């Protein structure tokens, strides 16, 4: 089969009915019927699809930005009302677990949302449909699209039916730690300001990017992490930084005592 024929079979040319057909499949699977089908089409369009298949489409990056805010509001409200005994710190940690990239990707895959994302053939071959960053971004974009299409109540219903049920699962999963939040809390509790994250290197082709991010604390780089997205790399960097700082802090009292200086006055 010729390459052009392959592209046509996998990605048929955009037509007036394409978004409508896409929206109908979405409704049958995830039970929200869009009034404006093109909002859903945009929410599910990855930037790789635009570069290779359909330059007339719009990527889901703007809708992802909006959906991230809507998701944060709805989850914050839900936790505030449902967990009256939780202090602010507990609410913040629980929210971070529910809206992080790993959880959203899990929700997107379990719900089958990742099957609807429009990707380029290269991104598809590289496993893009399973990548945490792509799936989580698409889910946030869909939330933004539902908010624009049906309002906050429809967005709330969608979030509560798809994301909130995972709350017990993520709270019991030790791998879901929010290292960025923990690092921030650790530094602020000791009066050391806030961490600063910086991308120090990008490598790989567009459909399989790798990011290396460094984190600065008190003007020094205390951790470097790598990942397939900036968010993932930041989490890894924060994890390394926490280890470095806690180990250094644990040695300070011993070193002070050996030098004959009372702890806390070194």
Give an overview in words:
The protein has two domains: 3-176, Orthogonal Bundle (Ribonuclease iii, N-terminal Endonuclease Domain, Chain A); 179-258, Double Stranded RNA Binding Domain. Mean pLDDT is 83; it is low at 1-17 and 262-266. Strand 2 and strand 3 form a beta hairpin. The longest helix has 29 residues, at 230-258. Strands 1-2-3 form a three-stranded antiparallel β-sheet, with helices on one face. The protein is mainly alpha-helical. It has helices at 3-10, 18-30, 37-43, 47-52, 61-82, 88-99, 101-111, 121-125, 132-150, 152-162, 167-171, 179-189, 230-258; strands at 196-203, 210-217, 220-227. It is globular and about 65 Å long. Helix content is 60%, strand content 9%.
